[in-house]
Amino acid sequence: MPHLGAIADDFTGATDLATMLVARGFRTVVAVGVPGGGQDAADVPAEADAVVVALKSRTAPTGQAVAESVAALRALRAAGCERFYFKYCSTFDSTPRGNIGPVADALLDELGAPGTVVVPAFPATGRTVYRARLFVHDDLLDESPMRDHPLTPMRDSHLGRLLAPQTVRAVHRVPHETVRAGAGAVREALDAPQARDALTVVDATTDDDLRTIAAATAHLPLVTGAAGLALGLTGPHGDQESARARATGRGPAAVLSGSASAATRAQVGHARRVLPSRALDPQALRADLEGAVAGLVAFATGCWREDPGRPPLIYATGEETAVPGSADPGAAQLVETALARCATALVAAGARHLLVAGGETSGAVVTALGARTLRIGAPIAPGVAWAHTEAVSDGSAHPVDLALKSGNFGGTDLFTTAWGALS
Ligand SMILES: Nc1ncnc2c1ncn2[C@@H]1O[C@H](COP(=O)(O)OP(=O)(O)OP(=O)(O)O)[C@@H](O)[C@H]1O
Ligand SMILES: O=C(O)[C@@H](O)C(=O)CO
Q: Where is the Four-carbon acid sugar kinase N-terminal domain (predicted)?
């Protein structure tokens, strides 16, 4: 029976946390959407040690994000989970109104818990928190590319200031000096009257800091943060090999990239020199979506015939493409639909491994594939792993391995090296 239940506000964030939990010895399943539609715990596998519910709630209307998150919490409790983790983005992606604060408040209220910690630091991916300011590698959050994110532009780096307008609770903070003084000092700071009922931002710049915070919060029913905080959790399978799901076996593969992030654009640039590739043309999609998708699928299956060892790359934005702004949401939707249709057609044509780049894109692909659960397997890079699922295509189930890559994760060669982790 699962002990740990997590609620992630997007799909790549869910596999990011699940990857970390597997590395910490939890057999982990990602449930796509609220298990059992919120009615029961039918979809929660009893053999899992941890379940991560993948929602698409980051930029949903706040009422919907809160309702889905509370429904997920209820399903996880019904499945036997006793501790909970609210996973949001390591760049604290949110609007001035939410959804991080409102969801954290609602989950605490549902659990009857007064307060909790806020820990977006994830040093392995360059996210650190010092003096309550969030850094992305060398830059403050509001000086990083996140400043101009089309959906959640981050124009401040101070987590207290970002959070205060989002929550009905007080916002408190625990400085780095206290973290360095050890788990006892952090626990004492969290038990102080001004912190007990608050959302408390805790500084962390290293993995050891995260382990200290995890030790200091082991008594809390709910913690919140990015995947880094899970570094300090320990699952029942010390040997992470036995916590991992097995891969599908040999079969055709492809990369579907709908991400417009700087890291992905560099990965596309690198992969195009090595793999056969095709760029999506939004104008062609608009003129004849079905025809354009059929052309892309024919390209990919032709590549498989020519050289089964080289996965074709289908991408929306590369180094040479102008980065799409928020001006044309219709085009973004069209790109997502096209890649989702490519995914279902490729699986029907025999694809067994799909590497998908972009959080929204991953949501569209996983939903189109009709995948209900993802079982996390071999790691590829911090925050990215292969995950085994059963896709429904043409009315029948097909075993598929998916790697869902968040836009800013992974080294430049990820699209060409990820396949090595499957063997
Ligand atoms: N050339 C393009 N023209 C129009 N829309 C595009 C283009 N390239 C990508 N998009 C759209 O931009 C969005 C990218 O978001 P997505 O979450 O998939 O990746 P991301 O930008 O890397 O973000 P994240 O960090 O959440 O992974 C998608 O909706 C995608 O369809
Ligand atoms: O925490 C992160 O940065 C990622 O897991 C994420 O949330 C991607 O959207």
A: 4-232
Q: Is the CB of residue 11 less than 8 Å from the CB of residue 403? A: no
Partners of 135 in the β-ladder: 128, 140
Ligand nearest to the CA of 91: 2
Q: Do 159 and 133 form a contact (C-beta atoms < 8 A)?
A: yes
Q: What domains can you pick out in the chain, each with its CATH number?
A: 4-239 (3.40.50.10840), 244-422 (3.40.980.20)
The number of beta carbons lying within 10 Å of the beta carbon of residue 121 is 27
How remote is the CA of residue 397 from the centroid of ligand 2, in Å?
A: 29
Q: What strands, in cross-sheet order, belong to the sheet with 127-130?
A: 127-130, 133-136, 139-140
Q: Give the C-alpha distances (Å, rounded to integers) separating 200 from 119, 208, 218, 222, 418.
A: 9, 19, 15, 12, 37
Angle between helices 289-306 and 329-348 (to 10 degrees): 40
Which residue has tokens 């959070």? 163
* CB 363 less than 6 A from any atom of ligand 1: no
ipTM given for this complex = 0.98
- Beta carbons within 10 angstroms of residue 370's beta carbon: 15
Nearest-CA neighbor of 6 among 16, 385, 37? 16
Residue 241 and residue 347: Cα distance in Å, rounded?
A: 27
- Choose among 367, 373, 403: nearest CA to 390: 373
Determine whether the shortest distance from the Cβ of 99 to ligand 2 is under 6 A. Answer: no
Shortest CA distance to 241 belongs to which of 347, 376, 388? 376
Residue 359 CB–ligand 2 contact under 6 Å: yes
Over residues 298-329, the pLDDT tens digits come to 999 999 999 988 999 999 998 887 776 655 66
* pTM of the predicted model as reported, rounded to 2 decimal places: 0.92
